[in-house]
Amino acid sequence: MNCWEILGLQPGVEERDIKRRYAKLVKNCRPEDSPEAWQQLHDAYEQALRYDDEDQWQEEEEEQPINMSRGIVHPRPVMTFRAPNTFSGHPLPDVTIKSEGEFTWQAVLDMLCEENETTPEHAPMQLAKALSFLEKKDLSSRMCFEEALLLHLHRVFRPLLTLAAAQTFRWHLVAGSRQPAIQTEINESCLLYYRIEKQITPFFASNLSPLEEMENGKEMATIYQSLKDNEESLKWFDIAVLNKVAEFELSDNYMALLIEYLSYSWRKEKMIRKWKLTERFNNLAMQHHSGYKKLLNAIKLKGLFYYPSSVFQSCLHAAEQGYSLAWYSLGKMYYEGDEVSQDLKLAFNWFTRAAQHNIIDAQYALGIMYSDGRGTDKNISEARKWFLLAAQNGNASAQYKLARISRFADEPLRNYEEALQWYLSAATQGHDLAQYELGQMYIQGIGVERDEVQAHRWFLQSAEQGYLYAQYHTARLYSESESIPQDQEKALYWFTKAAKNGADGAGDAMYELGKYYLTNNDDPENNAEAIQWLTGAAQRGRIEAIFLLAEMYLYGTKDIAKDENHALHWYEKAARLGSTEAQHQTAAMYAQGTGTKIDNKQAWMWLTIAGNNNPWIEKDALRCLMSEQDIQDAEQTAANCKRLLRI
After folding, report:
1. pTM of the model
2. Per-residue model confidence as pLDDT tens digits over 550-605
3. Is cis: bond before 412, omega within 30 of 0?
4. Containing domain of residue 259, as a range?
5. In terms of domains, do 82 and 161 share one?
6. Are 509 and 636 within one domain?
7. What CATH code is carried by the domain that includes residue 20?
8. The Cα angle at residue 250 between residues 244 and 252, in degrees rounded to 5
9. Strand partners, 277
């Protein structure tokens, strides 16, 4: 940049104008804020004062970028636009000036916006052409044009024109704008674009192999997933993708793959294998016509839809070319039934082919199919064979499965020492289930001497990864162990973590919390906590919690009002879970009308289910109050209930 561009003045202006401009700029560029930027501005000021040769400024070498720190975003130049004369072989349309009177900076701006709306990808050349018209005007017109364009780009999303203008006018270098906040915002948007463009560039090239297309597509999907929840990032990500699509000769296969991986298409339900283009994709037509058209032409729309899945087609193409990773991916698609109709036999065949070529994930998948008997006959020996191959190649999930076979299988496959070895291998790699089950082997002394310290070590590691049962057992050890220092605060912490986990099995932790708050009931709030956790445990089927709640409501406490109806509700729940004691209690409450109106048929039904003598009511006395038909109906209901509830 020459001194006049830095100062924003017309070459050869009067000295007083130079001084006024410098005084205005230096207010926002002080030496204590940025010595380099101040020196740059000061040098430009002195050069302008010494100016005496009209052509000198045209020959000056471009200065180093000004590093403004006040309200200016620093650049990371990544993208260089093509020369203004041509763009992708398409000449720019001529701009017609109707009369000299209409030739104003505003008219040029209007024509620029109109052209850019028609062909947005030609933005660099459109801007260059607009500026060529302004060369006939004074510097003031150019400055007005620049500021008006800045405001327009702030209001209207024209990404390619924004990038071109930011680079042409060097908004990242020049201070003194009357709209510094807008200038900074646009600079930040451009930097965001360049960061995203740099991130995706490695995954675009001409003449990619089918395997490269598959792998690159997955990488692009990962980048998209990391950006999709940020609206601003997603907008610039889409522009970067369109620029790359326009830049390279990509196969239709790869572009169709991107449409699916980047969520430019969707389907209503998993089982409906018809994909429809999203509104987000269709809106891209306004931002980059040629990139949009290339993507659109890559898929074969049938009306509003296309099928089959582009991901599946890409994978099939790579598999047909002999890529073993594609064989595994095809097997996974057939196994999961996502991109294509589920076919476990085809999944088994593709997994086998890939596993035989040492694809570790395929070896593990094949082990799963043999162990579960899916797509093939169940065969634990074959499952162990494939798990072993994957485990020896470092697959933690295979090591875990191998450990379970060694621990739980029938002879001769059962081997506790081997189970311990494989659990340890997987646990060391951070496998949470392996860590938990290794802790179980130590706490139970299976294949190794009982060791609560080692059990606690592995339970804790698994608990920290969020595994509910490990959190529960970690809390139990802090609460009860004699081998590690007891710590009720840590026990309470891990019981709470397990209770709030939300997974199946949280009832045990909820029960422990309920007991804790019930025991420490000096604070009235603790009673509310106790009821909350006991209720949660009871709803999840913890019998002890159900009985505790039922008794509290049946007799009442100093903090809980007596409520026989609530008591009956919880006793009946325990009865349905198979508790004989609860069945007797429920029968007695129906017979005596406790918490409900007297219902002899319900009482007889629960007496029949319980099967033994009821300690609270005489069966013969109850029989005298019932007709034979009522007894038959109650006994039939009892039989149905036992069958349905499996009690």
Report:
1. 0.66
2. 999 999 987 789 999 999 999 999 999 999 999 999 999 999 999 999 999 999 99
3. yes
4. 204-321
5. yes
6. yes
7. 1.10.287
8. 125
9. 265
